[in-house]
Design goal:
By secondary structure, the chain is α/β, with parallel strands linked by helices. Helices cover 55% and strands 12% of the residues. Helix 2 crosses helix 3 and helix 5 packs antiparallel against helix 6.
Length: 434
């Protein structure tokens, strides 16, 4: 059984094409049900679908046939022909497929280098597939290895350090003034996509209260519901500013929605309490003259942009370190994979049992007369041969090209702790259960 993938992502296709083939978790469940009925060449499957990619990872004996069948089903399922368009899709097999997913999990294949959401999305993709019974031993181990790679990259490098998006930089600005947003309230002005992204980042900080204001109240209500906050009518903006500690504005208004005069009145009524005002709208939502008001900390796109560019440059320096970790984990995964053939497993199993036998014979041989030690060793080897006779025959009958055969070989290595060097049970201590 071979590892392969095909898919569409931000490097191969425009946003409209990616959106057309993207799948929700519910859709993936429905899709898996259809693929099982219509595809016999795909033996294991995991679908990773986000706003920037839809990638299908599979285990198959005939990867060419599996890929063709899977493309047909995706196109039928989504009602498009994009998966048949070689300009939009890409394919990887074997080591290249593994390296691709490991780089994805590490945040090296993202629009924003080092972004951390993708690691959770890789975990979720496996969880969704497991609920559908789609992956087997190969893809389960593969995705766990990818998650491990992503965690290593984030813990051993600084590739995820510092905000590299305007929305996240806004949070950083607020926490410079207020260390713990759990004690402070936030208002998001504007319920478009930018306002939503800002709201999600602030929600994750657990503010005391989160308000959403928008000229169309229904949109404010919908976003507030998603964020677990409260919606307010737009005409209550001034009253809300007197109450909150942070305001982030991201409307599409052609002129400022917060004048210097309005904010001056707000600051007088706040009685000296500081207000962080972050303007990420273009054109701006807040009159720049308001930045001269006492206790009002005003940040605009220029200030946020300078921070994100500096952090992008810092993250770029960490890419070589992250790539080395990806290469290490790719080699480790294929060391495991390449030992999952019948002959290496049989050899490793016999080697591990023989080592246990020799060790136990030496350990207990002191209790025997010297002339009986050879008899003890022969008896030990004969016992091992008899114990391994039927398992060896069973292993030799396995077919690694089938999920059942591959799974049994993988289980044998796991159960008897047979690593790539052939060590196994009893490699430490006296071989007894700990």
């Amino acid at each position: 059984m071979q590892l392969s993938l095909f898919g569409i992502n931000h490097t191969s296709a425009p946003a409209g094409v990616r959106d057309a083939v993207a799948m929700t978790a519910e859709e993936i469940g429905d899709f898996v049900g259809q693929y099982r009925e219509r595809i016999d060449a795909v033996q294991e499957l995991v679908v990773l679908s986000t706003c920037h990619r839809t990638e299908l990872y599979m285990g198959a004996a005939d990867t060419a046939a599996a890929g063709k069948q899977l493309r047909d089903v995706v196109c039928t399922f989504k009602g498009v022909e994009h998966m048949h368009n070689g300009q939009y899709t890409f394919e990887r097999e074997g080591r290249e497929a593994a390296k691709h997913l490991f780089r994805v999990a590490a945040g090296l294949d993202s629009l924003m280098i080092g972004e951390d959401q993708i690691l959770g999305q890789v975990k979720d993709a496996l969880a969704v597939a497991e609920r559908c019974g789609a992956p087997g031993s190969l893809l389960t181990r593969f995705f766990h290895a990818a998650v491990h790679t992503g965690k290593r990259v984030r813990s051993e490098t600084e590739i995820g350090r510092g905000a590299v998006s305007i929305a996240y930089a806004a949070v950083g600005m607020a926490t410079k003034v207020f260390n713990d947003l759990a004690q402070h309230s936030v208002a998001v002005v504007g319920a478009g996509e930018t306002g939503r992204l800002v709201g999600l980042h602030f929600r994750d900080q657990g503010p005391a209260q989160l308000f959403v204001l928008n000229r169309t109240f229904e949109r404010a209500r919908q976003l507030a519901e998603e964020l677990g906050g409260r919606a307010r009518p737009f005409d209550e903006l001034a009253a809300t500013l007197r109450e909150v500690d942070v305001v982030v504005s991201a409307t599409v208004a052609p002129e400022p929605v917060m004048s210097a005069e309005m904010l001056a009145e707000v600051m007088r009524e706040r009685g000296g309490r500081p207000l962080v005002a972050i303007d990420i709208a273009s054109p701006g939502d807040i009159d720049p003259a308001a930045g001269r008001l006492a206790n009002l900390f005003l940040y605009d796109l220029d200030a946020l942009g300078a921070i994100t560019e500096q952090n992008r440059a810092q993250r770029a320096k960490e890419i070589p370190k992250a790539e080395r970790i990806v290469d290490e984990e790719q080699r480790r995964f294929f060391q495991w994979y390449e030992t999952l053939a019948v002959t290496p497993v049989v050899r490793a199993l016999r080697k591990s049992f023989e080592e246990i036998g020799r060790r136990e014979a030496r350990k207990h041989g002191k209790q025997f007369h010297r002339t009986d030690r050879e008899t003890l060793e022969r008896y030990t080897q004969a016992l091992i041969s008899k114990l391994l006779h039927h398992p060896t025959l069973g292993l030799k009958d396995l077919d690694r090209s089938t999920p059942e055969g591959f799974g049994k070989l993988a289980a044998m290595r796991e159960l008897f702790r047979l690593d790539a060097d052939g060590d196994g049970p009893g490699s430490e201590g006296d071989g007894e259960s700990q």
